[in-house]
Amino acid sequence: MLAIESLSVEFGGLKALESIGFSVKDGDIVGIVGPNGAGKTTLFDAIQGVVAPSAGSITFDGARIDGMPMHARAARGIARTHQTPRLFLRMSPLENVAAGTYLQKAPKTQVDDAVREALSISGYAGALAIFARDVSENDRRRIELARALASSPHLFLLDEPLASFDEGQREVLRARLVACARERKAAMLIAERDIAECADLCDRVVVLHAGKMIAQGTPKDVAADPDVRDAYFGVEWRL
To answer: For the whole model, what pTM was predicted?
Structure first.
């Protein structure tokens, strides 16, 4: 489904990403893990089309997309959430989620069903007719996730989707995200700072550090990798 080869991104000579390469299949849930500044968000920006690669390629469903505009990538089935939710603040939660279906050109009944299902999966249970600016931070996250779900994408880019939720809420959301990926055969890339967050969620993990990919494997194997431990804890742990 998604193949990233030798991907690099530079900003004014600064390498934000350097020679990143991995692939994702239908139904895969892959954690993109690393400390702040590792390059997780830049990687998502490159896949979505916010930034242009300086080298390498991005192939999605058999076609090169690294030269495509953002709207064309969205039309091919790529949806995203952000660390800080980006909603239409003067639109209602219901309108925000419905906006995720605009590319589908489906009958209203089908759109309504998609919106209801998306809200149910995300766990949003608040008012539907108020302004989105008036809901809590957690509910904004749920609304943005629901909007992505309602678009029925082939690939989700979820940037720290569990942040700010308590452990009980995270556990429920993890289970729902896994079920969604399996049922829809959709791939998910999930950016997280902590490998432990990926243990019950991701099939495998790609670890970034200072713009470079330093490890790839199961959450358990990656957590024990010496290079990963160096990145998180410094070399003192070896002493």
So the answer is: 0.94
